């Protein structure tokens, strides 16, 4: 029972990280109608910049806080240099161009930081366990990820639903040309939203760093998962992205934690432990295919 | 036929095909064995690109998972080989059948969606196959599996590099011939018509979905063939041959060569592999050590191609008449 609770929490934590990544992606897709494969690169860049800044400042919190505006700047620079030219183009052009950006960023990071992976240590004040229930310890750092992730999710919901910027974002998602005609500076709005998405991606990357590791291409596989999440949730829907991220997080963790034991009942234990992660990944894609067959525009997507 | 040879496109294509046909002799004469293995991979990738072009280029169906057919063709051969079935007469039909059946199944599901959702669902199915491959511990899991090449006793020895190359080349020529018949047939015209205006084709009474499904299935079968060849080329299968980056590479190749053109996939594949091989040494000439980071140049090059050169290499060869 305790084991189940811990695994569910791990699933929530993974889900929130993926939500941070998916949120920026679904905003750019919903508002600007832009497929950005390079979003995973921003996740990676955020982690690498954080690694450097944490080394310089000798403080995890300070380094992480400084890495966010830095990632924002990278995001805005990419938007101005390349992304801006892609809004009016078809999806194929966008896929191709941002695929080129992935290759560029992976190689740039290799040139700047070297081919080896980096590790970010869990900050000292979080390097312990806390009791989430009496007698049930849980790593404090993972709990902190859940807190920060939940806070950002709430902040984002508030931003989109209650602020002027959010109003423009929603208006942009439903009719881009109209808000331009109403005198809103669309270029600025798009740059801001893209930068905001970059910050979320960078935040997810640097928070994941102490658990996984900072390495080249770290954003490539998780990007696909984030794309799956926004497609399941429905493109442009923050709510959909959140729900889908939670579901995918649970599937992934449950698959890793419980499938091996279930599989061991009918196959060898080594085969079971290597098949389980693959099966949980497969389940995610089966879920996506099922959702799309049932609802071709995702759970909360705009019907066309 | 002779008229086609007088255009720049005709001359360039004829030259390329001639050089490719003679490549084993050339590499032997100049003692550049390494080039023959690159040449073989160019031919195999060209077949995959031709098959993707049939749906993406002519049909506007942006499949972002075409490398899965590398995997299905390759794994069918590899798994049979691992169980001692080494005859190509069994391996190849089984692999083709597997690719065809899988393409029909996912086509049935994917073609219900449009635009971005189609891109994503094809990607998802490719990832699904990828993770199944990496989960098959009995067949090497993530590390992949060394296999023995398919046997066609008395007919051809695939271990002989030149024979294998010529087999691949013959299959490429057959694929190109098939694709040209496809593109100009009534069937192909419906597919091309549905690319420019699906609503109109539907209104004209064509069951667009069924036509697309048929095209998708054929392309999957041809993609499976390239997978069979790829597994035989390296005598090796691994999930890496169907990673989503490979699907991306295939799209790059199609656009680079010229979408919806007969020889575009061939031009694109050659250009892609030449860039991959030539950029590092060229960059090293500019500044020692830069060659290692050739993708810093290649990435932005892709961006520029996507933005400004959508006609691809084919459009450089003058206007088309078809």
From TrEMBL, chain A:
Residue intervals passing through the bilayer: 6-27, 34-54, 60-83, 95-113, 140-161, 182-210, 222-249, 270-294
Localization of this protein: Cell membrane
Top-rank taxon of the source lineage equals Bacteria
- Cite a single Pfam family from the UniProt record: BPD_transp_2
Q: How does it sit in the membrane?
A: Multi-pass membrane protein
UniProt keyword annotations, A-Z:
Amino-acid transport, Cell membrane, Membrane, Transmembrane, Transmembrane helix, Transport
Q: Does the keyword Transmembrane apply?
A: yes
Similarity comment: family membership = Belongs to the binding-protein-dependent transport system permease family. LivHM subfamily.
> Can you name this protein?
Branched-chain amino acid ABC transporter permease
What organism, scientifically named, is this protein from?
A: Reyranella aquatilis
The organism's taxonomy opens as: Bacteria, Pseudomonadati, Pseudomonadota, Alphaproteobacteria, Hyphomicrobiales
């Amino acid at each position: 029972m305790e084991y189940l609770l811990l695994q569910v929490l791990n699933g929530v934590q993974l889900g929130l990280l993926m939500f941070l990544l998916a949120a920026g992606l679904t905003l750019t897709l919903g508002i600007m109608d832009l497929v950005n494969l390079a979003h995973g690169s921003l996740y990676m860049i955020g982690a690498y910049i954080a690694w450097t800044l944490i080394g310089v400042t000798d403080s995890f919190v300070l380094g992480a806080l400084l890495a966010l505006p830095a990632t924002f700047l990278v995001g805005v620079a990419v938007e101005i240099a390349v992304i801006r030219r892609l809004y009016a183009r078809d999806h194929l052009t966008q896929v191709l161009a941002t695929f080129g950006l992935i290759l560029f960023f992976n190689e740039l990071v290799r040139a700047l930081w070297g081919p080896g992976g980096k590790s970010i240590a869990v900050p000292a004040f979080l390097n312990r366990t806390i009791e989430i229930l009496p007698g049930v310890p849980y790593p404090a750092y993972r709990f902190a990820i859940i807190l920060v992730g939940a806070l950002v999710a709430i902040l984002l919901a508030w931003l989109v639903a209650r602020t002027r910027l959010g109003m423009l974002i929603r208006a942009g998602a439903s009719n881009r040309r109209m808000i331009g005609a109403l005198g809103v500076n669309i270029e600025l709005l798009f740059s801001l939203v893209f930068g905001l998405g970059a910050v979320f991606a960078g935040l997810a990357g640097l928070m994941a760093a102490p658990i996984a590791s900072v390495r080249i291409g770290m954003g490539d596989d998780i990007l696909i998962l984030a794309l799956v999440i926004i497609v399941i949730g429905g493109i442009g829907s923050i709510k959909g992205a959140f729900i889908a991220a939670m579901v995918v997080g649970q599937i992934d963790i449950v698959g890793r934690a419980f499938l091996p034991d279930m599989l061991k009942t009918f196959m060898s234990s080594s085969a079971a432990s290597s098949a389980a992660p693959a099966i949980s990944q497969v389940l995610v894609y089966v879920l996506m295919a099922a959702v799309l067959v049932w609802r071709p525009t995702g759970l909360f997507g705009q019907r066309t | 036929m002779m008229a086609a040879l007088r255009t720049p496109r005709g001359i360039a294509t004829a030259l390329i095909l001639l050089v490719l046909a003679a490549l084993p002799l050339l590499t032997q004469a100049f003692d550049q064995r390494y080039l023959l293995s690159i040449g073989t991979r160019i031919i195999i990738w060209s077949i995959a690109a031709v098959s993707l072009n049939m749906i993406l280029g002519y049909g506007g169906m942006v499949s972002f998972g075409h490398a899965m057919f590398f995997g299905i063709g390759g794994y069918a051969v590899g798994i049979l080989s691992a169980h001692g079935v080494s005859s190509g007469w069994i391996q190849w039909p089984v692999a083709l059948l597997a690719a065809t059946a899988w393409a029909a199944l996912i086509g049935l599901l994917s073609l219900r969606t449009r635009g971005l959702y189609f891109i994503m669902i094809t990607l998802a199915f490719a990832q699904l196959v990828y993770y199944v491959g990496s989960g098959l511990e009995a067949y090497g899991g993530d590390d992949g599996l060394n296999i023995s090449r398919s046997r066609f006793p008395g007919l051809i020895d695939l271990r002989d590099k030149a024979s294998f190359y010529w087999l691949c080349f013959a299959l490429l020529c057959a694929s190109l011939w098939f694709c040209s018949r496809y593109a100009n047939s009534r069937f192909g015209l419906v597919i091309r018509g549905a690319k420019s205006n699906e609503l109109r084709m539907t209104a004209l009474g064509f069951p667009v979905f069924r036509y697309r499904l048929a095209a998708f299935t054929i392309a999957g079968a041809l993609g499976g063939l390239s997978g069979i060849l790829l597994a035989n080329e390296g005598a090796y299968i691994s999930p890496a041959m169907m990673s989503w980056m490979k699907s991306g590479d295939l799209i790059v190749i199609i656009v680079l060569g010229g979408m919806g053109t007969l020889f575009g996939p061939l031009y694109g594949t050659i250009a892609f592999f030449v860039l991959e091989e030539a950029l590092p040494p060229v960059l090293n000439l500019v500044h020692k050590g830069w060659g290692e980071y050739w993708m810093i140049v290649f990435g932005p090059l892709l961006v520029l191609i996507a933005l400004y050169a959508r006609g691809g290499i084919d459009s450089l060869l003058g206007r088309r008449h078809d």
